[in-house]
Amino acid sequence: MSGQINDNVILFPKTVEFYQFELTRLLEAERYGEAIKLLRFLLACQSDDDRAREEWQSLLDWLQVMFPDLALGQEDESEELSEADLLRQHLHAKGEEKGDYAKRLLASLREQRAVDKQLLALDQLAFLEDEGIDEELIKWLKEDAGRHPLIQFKTLQTLKKRGATGSVTLHKNGEATVVEIEDTPAAFDQFPSQIQEIMNRVQEISETQHPALSYFAAETWNEFLAFIYGTSAYRQMLRQDSACVDVWAAALHLTLLEQVFEGGDKAELFELYGITSDLAFQWEQTYRMMQQFAANVFTRRL
């Protein structure tokens, strides 16, 4: 998050619903430190939803009691294991306890249709020591041309974390594309610099114009990158010049305002981002792509 935590930020009803989804996702993934930070952010904002505020306060109180070190922000990198190390140890123990745990997770990928549950299974498969996982994940990735783009990208990340290599042909957004597993960014900071600049631009503008937008922007941009990764749109983004940073940033900004808040002013954003008439057509193309993404992703949240 951006660190812009203050009582001048107003949470609209759809915004509250979005944050509820994010909290659930963090708790299911056992990312309790991030959940504590998000809850503190939410409680510092204004909202008319008293029931949600009571739930957030109760959950924060419970997390602070259960995880006092996380609540105090005590993190000694030289002495403490990383979150990934802890997860790996936890899953290794679970695998020892239940020898078929990897097979059960792989089976759940095939049987479970909920995107969030599939993401959680992939998070765990990344750290399990089982030689057959890579082959099964690649087979599963190839066999369904209609698989959700977010799941496709997460599977590539899981394979990369496991050390797998090689090319895979994916069907995404109406096109076939070949990607190399080893080239898949394992985290946002591994994407090319021009892509990171787009996110930085949105956060720069939103910090003064829409303070509550910064958290949404980072999360949504990561999901959008997963949605288009490897496609012709992604390759086009990499080839564009610096002026197009504002085009992509403005399109993301307006999409977020429309989907999560109470709408946005296109003319105002054009002025803020310096979108001239020469860039208007390119912006319309980018905005339509964002709308396609929003129709696939936001509809499962709100």
> What class do helices, strands and sheet pairing give?
mainly alpha
| Percent of residues in beta strands | under 5%
- The level of helicity is 55-70%
Low-pLDDT parts are: 1-7, 74-83
Strand order of the largest sheet: 1-2
- Count of domains: 3
Order of helices and strands: HHHHHHHHHEEHHHHHH
How many angstroms does the end-to-end distance come to? 21 Å
The count of helical stretches stands at: 15
Tell me how many strands there are. 2
Radius of gyration: 20 Å
How are the elements arranged and paired?
Blueprint: H1 13-28, H2 32-43, H3 50-66, H4 68-72, H5 83-97, H6 101-111, H7 115-125, H8 133-143, H9 149-161, E1 167-172, E2 175-180, H10 193-209, H11 213-228, H12 232-239, H13 244-260, H14 266-273, H15 277-297
Antiparallel strand pairs: 1-2
Folded structure, characterized:
Helices cover 66% and strands 4% of the residues. Residues 1-7 and 74-83 have low confidence and may be disordered. Strands 1-2 form a two-stranded antiparallel sheet. It is globular, with a radius of gyration of 20 Å. The protein has three domains: 13-72, no CATH class; 83-183, no CATH class; 188-300, no CATH class. The protein is mostly helical. The longest helix has 21 residues, at 277-297. It has 15 helices and two strands.
